Amino acid sequence: MVTLILDTNIWIYLAKGEHPEVLEKLIEKYNKKEIQFLISSIQIEEWNRNKGE
Question: pTM, whole model, 2 decimals?
Answer without folding.
Answer: 0.74
